[in-house]
Write a structure and sequence with these properties.
Length: 389
């Protein structure tokens, strides 16, 4: 089913900042090839502490084994689940016909957001919350989140290089963004669910700028760590469509030893006018019942005040048609969180005129006044009211 996966390029993160220009150029070319066709790259010398990641997974599994009541205390529908615990079957992929994913998650942000942004976007710039008696969980998770953010920033320098932009252009655009790290536990399938259409993660593209995936751990039905129980389980991506494969081609991700993965999100596709492609990907569950998996994803976001529109060098009639109109990242995030089922539909109301109730109240009061006065003042409502827009 898949083309040979070693075609997906590997980049050494150090090469992107090498003093030797030919080394830098070769690394940038790998980024260009990887993100232009697959939307995914393998990263060597990433700087993420994998021992710490393993310690974190132990702490995370301790948390997920807590009672439903305990975990519910960490659930935050009021901030659209952007921090703390997301129960299973909450989030759904946009194109999946509404089938929720079989996973539970815990979200944090690597750095405390600025007060101004917390006020403007209370959900996507919320402060972290932590479970009780979970020091190891909090300490290791925060550290990993920051390391993953740094991988993203370093790789973004390579992306700018690959696209002929100023080296700091992307790095500056994500500074202060509503970045989130998500720890996930994919729920085991039972006998009846195995071999059905149920997936651990339905096909979707990530909506952020760049996603960093440091790797996960499979667990057997007794909860013990195990190797991959089914060679076909795990992540598949769909390549950019071309003449040979008009719908793209499904490729199974097989991360080389010692590497981690980075993926292009929709925000990066939009600002590059489609030069980089946000890759559709899907997570296949093993075909054996009872197996679960823990994993982590770090989502680097553009700053909420950035504009989402092809940058000048990538602006063509076609890209403007495909990615217009220009949008503000914060409002784009709001809409997408509604689409994937985390934010309520009413959140849309904040994007339009919001003072209908005020006008209505004034008009009702005036109507009451007129009735009291026996309807003598004919035009009062018109004059006191505000324009409807
Ligand atoms: Fe994803």
């Amino acid at each position: 089913m898949s083309e040979s996966t070693h075609e997906i390029p590997v980049v050494d993160l150090n090469d992107l900042t090498s003093p030797q220009s030919d080394v830098r150029a070769e690394a940038a070319a790998a980024v260009r090839r990887a993100f232009g066709h697959y939307g995914l790259i393998y990263i060597r010398n990433h700087g993420v502490d994998i021992d710490l990641l393993e310690k974190f997974y132990d702490a995370f599994l301790e948390f997920t084994s807590r009672s439903e009541d305990d975990k519910q205390k960490m659930s935050t529908p009021d901030i659209w689940y952007q921090r703390g615990w997301t129960p299973p079957n909450t989030e759904k992929a946009v194109v999946a016909g509404g089938q929720p994913d079989f996973k539970e998650c815990f979200f944090i942000t690597p750095y405390e957001p600025a007060d101004e942004l917390k006020q403007q976007y209370p959900e996507i710039y919320a402060s972290n919350i932590w479970p009780e008696n979970a020091d190891e969980f909090e300490g290791s998770y925060t550290e990993l989140s920051r390391q993953l953010q740094q991988v993203g920033v370093n790789l973004l320098r390579g992306c700018a290089l690959a696209l002929g932009l100023a080296p700091q252009q992307f790095e500056a655009a994500v500074d202060g963004g509503p970045h989130v790290t998500r720890a996930l536990r994919y729920i085991p399938l039972d006998d009846e669910q195995v071999d059905t259409d149920i997936l651990w993660g339905e096909e979707h593209t990530d909506f952020n700028f760049l996603t960093i995936l440091p790797g996960g751990r499979f667990l057997d039905p007794s909860g013990e760590r195990c190797s991959k129980p089914d060679p076909d389980a795990g992540l598949y991506l769909r390549t950019r469509p071309n003449e040979e494969h008009p719908n793209g081609k499904l490729v199974q991700g097989q991360t080389p030893e010692g590497c981690i993965v980075a993926q292009v999100g929709q925000q990066l596709e939009i600002v590059t006018g489609g030069e980089f492609i946000a890759t559709p990907h899907v997570i296949e569950a093993p075909k054996q019942p009872g197996y679960s998996r823990v994993a982590m994803a770090h989502f680097v976001h553009l700053h909420a005040h950035e504009q989402l529109f092809p940058l000048e060098p990538f602006r063509t009639d076609e890209s403007v048609r495909a990615y217009g109109p220009p949008k503000m990242v914060g409002t784009y995030n709001l809409k997408t969180l509604i689409d994937i089922g985390l934010a309520p539909k009413e959140a849309f109301d904040r994007l339009g005129y919001t003072q209908y109730e005020r006008l209505d109240k004034i008009r009702q009061e005036e109507k009451g006044g007129q009735e009291e006065m026996g309807g003598q003042e004919e035009k009062g409502g018109q004059e006191a009211g505000e324009p409807a827009e």
